[in-house]
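User: Last request for today: this protein with cobalt (II) ion, please.
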Amino acid sequence: MDKNKVKLGIAPIAWTNDDLPELGAENTFEQCVSEMALAGFTGSEVGNKYPTDPEELKSKLESRGIQICNAWFSTFFAEGKKEKTIEKFIEHRDFLAEMGAEVIGCSEQSYSIQGLDKAIFEEKPEFSQEEWEKIAEGYNQLAELAAEKGMKVSLHHHMGTGVQTPAEVDKFMEMTNDDVYLLFDSGHIYYSEGTQAAVENLLKKYVDQIAHVHLKDVRDEVVKEVKEKGLSFLDGVKMGAFTIPGDGAIKFEPLFETLEEAGYEGWMVVEAEQDPAKANPFEYAVQAREFIKEKTGL
Ligand SMILES: O=C1C[C@@H](O)[C@H](O)[C@@H](O)C1=O
Ligand SMILES: [Co+2]
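Assistant: Here's the final one, the structure of the complex with cobalt (II) ion:
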């Protein structure tokens, strides 16, 4: 892969998990970003221990050779919370623009069960046609707002949300304008569908509309248990459903090939939330970096 086109980041979620604050409560921001840099990454997303002042954050990241490439943003269009979503989006966009990021990764969180104690394979929301229309209209507006700062808005398909399956991603992409992009997360599509083919097909279908990539691997045996026992998404995370690329069931070689052939330009971010007490974040970061180097030359 071309170093001038593809940059490598890593998400802080392996050190401190915002969805499960008890995971990694002992890890500091400084430790997290120092270890990211030491492992050979140049980009990061934003965690809840990061300084909120852009100047302070920039200076602490610059001294480590790291830059912010994206940060999660939750939208609530289907629930009818358009005004509040837009107001918060503008704040988030301005913060990311100041940090030099070019992409905003959003997730439609209306009725999401990803943080709730509900069976992840049984109780996810499904949107009505009227709700889909609200979502499409909302994202089209977010794309225009992002463009004001030269940025792209992208949708993170995610377990436990109304945009989880390939059919739901299709519906979202069909209903939104061409300036609304996809944030491709290998782990979430594999978790949802359980096959390598589903991961490869989704990537191939939308590769020209993908603005950001999350590299996540999945442990089949953990997902099997989550399904059989009717467990929640966060139960699965604590049990080790996710891991770094190369350590689980997904074959990454065809994914890297598809991205390279399509001339993908942007960030690939290792995002592997595990319990840091069981999976040392620095050691896993080093292992992920070596795997990516071996498979892509980056
Ligand atoms: O991008 C992500 C952000 C996390 O908060 C989320 O739960 C994780 O699974 C993910 O893919
Ligand atoms: Co992700």
